[in-house]
TrEMBL record:
<protein>
    <submittedName>
        <fullName>Helix-turn-helix domain-containing protein</fullName>
    </submittedName>
</protein>
<dbReference type="InterPro" id="IPR010982">
    <property type="entry name" value="Lambda_DNA-bd_dom_sf"/>
</dbReference>
<feature type="domain" description="HTH cro/C1-type">
    <location>
        <begin position="39"/>
        <end position="88"/>
    </location>
</feature>
<dbReference type="InterPro" id="IPR041413">
    <property type="entry name" value="MLTR_LBD"/>
</dbReference>
<dbReference type="Pfam" id="PF13560">
    <property type="entry name" value="HTH_31"/>
</dbReference>
<dbReference type="Pfam" id="PF17765">
    <property type="entry name" value="MLTR_LBD"/>
</dbReference>
<dbReference type="InterPro" id="IPR001387">
    <property type="entry name" value="Cro/C1-type_HTH"/>
</dbReference>
Length: 290
């Protein structure tokens, strides 16, 4: 059983380690103004660790014994070496397991076959932390050429916040981005020990003030169904319904598809885009009624 003295030592150890780091060391922007404390602030550690400032504060004050996954995340944020990491776990009374590498996630064959058959419907397969695992030509024509993005950077949340074209594509970019952050926050609760998810949150928190604000709001949401309006540079305005199919053999993979009501301008726009994506890329607009 961990004594109060051990928890106090844990808190002092964390305080000393964060004092050794600067915002620049962990990729955070320098504020430019005077800092009341040396090193990182508590809220900065909490932000990068994807936990609340209150939770981290209680840990550092010796009032809470954190879970092993949270300890592992804090160790990564504070750039602890193996010996320091072992000491951190010992003071918390936890077994110090070495971080396990998750296997690289590959699209399930049945989802790939289904995706290949969707010639007139845009679709893509999203994996853990919204990594883009597979897509069809129409999804690439609708959103972006995913194949041009390095595999390690091929993530839908990152794309939303780092590609300026995405802000023009979605008529309600803020609503889409907020919802995506809430979905990512839900996944972070399920997999608090995922180092790539932690790194993604840290990266986007540094790069985008909106992401930093919305992540800190702690809203959560599941990916279900909905409607989005897209301002497509080739097909014009598209009002599309989206739905998800969860893979039974790997629940962390979801097939996301977009569709439009037959007979609507958006339906015709998708048909036009499909022809454009398969090679007839003439700079023309989709047919509309006079």
């Amino acid at each position: 059983m961990t004594s109060d003295a051990h928890l106090n030592e844990l808190g002092e150890f964390l305080k000393a380690r964060r004092a050794e780091l600067s915002p620049r060391t962990v990729g955070l922007p320098e504020s430019g103004g005077p800092r009341r404390v040396s090193g990182l602030r508590r809220e900065e550690v909490a932000l990068l660790a994807a936990i609340s400032t209150d939770y981290y504060t209680r840990v550092e004050q010796g009032r809470m014994r954190p879970s092993a996954p949270v300890l592992a995340t804090i160790a990564r944020v504070l750039h602890l070496g193996d010996d320091q990491r072992d000491y951190l776990f010992e003071r918390a009374g936890k077994e110090a397991e070495r971080p396990r590498r998750r296997s690289v996630q590959k699209v399930q064959p049945q989802l790939q076959r289904l995706l290949d058959d969707l010639t007139a419907t845009p679709g893509m397969v999203l994996g853990r932390r919204d990594d883009i695992l597979a897509w069809n030509p129409l999804a690439a024509a609708l959103v972006t050429e995913f194949g041009d993005i390095p595999e390690k950077k091929r993530n839908y949340v990152r794309l939303l916040f780092t590609d300026p074209a995405m802000r023009s594509l979605y008529a309600d970019w803020e609503g889409v981005a907020r919802g995506t952050v809430a979905q990512l926050r839900r996944e972070a609760a399920r997999y608090p020990d995922d180092p790539r998810l932690t790194a993604l949150v840290g990266e986007l928190s540094v790069q985008d003030a909106h992401f930093r604000q919305w992540w800190g709001a702690h809203h959560v949401a599941a990916r279900t169904v909905g409607t989005k309006t897209l301002n497509h540079p080739v097909a014009g305005e598209l009002v599309l319904d989206w739905d998800t199919l969860t893979c039974s053999t790997d629940p962390d993979q979801q097939l996301v598809i977009w569709s439009a009501e037959p007979g609507t301008p958006s339906y015709e726009g998708l048909r036009f885009l499909s022809s454009w994506a398969t090679g007839d890329r003439r700079p023309a607009a989709p047919h509309t009624a006079d």
